[in-house]
């Protein structure tokens, strides 16, 4: 009976560890990759904005999808444009969300039809973020991997959105 209980406890522990491991981001000292929940982009409305009382470290600062990876705050924002989609990426450091202006940032985009596009994001000093226009009017799900190189340190995030 005691052997049966030991085996049952071991199997239950293994099942819990397996179920939990699917939601744990992969992180190392030089690379971090995490997945954010998908969002759907829609045209902005003229509704008044609501001020947040106190933003927490992991909360969206710009209304986008957020990944916290070690000391880094990654926020991905999409907005429809007349001829495509504008992608904004806020790469920030620390609890104060200090912008990182000197990183090399690339977006690998899987289009709704399965084709791939690679886009280099440029830094906008006035907006303190990286951005690029994606020329596409295709409807469906877009999967985006943002690859950031911060002085040799790789910090990557996976995002998705629907148009």
UniProtKB/TrEMBL annotation:
Signal peptide start and end residues: 1-21
Alphabetically ordered keywords of this record: Signal
Record has Signal as a keyword: yes
Protein known as: YtkA-like domain-containing protein
Source lineage: Bacteria, Bacillati, Cyanobacteriota, Cyanophyceae, Pseudanabaenales
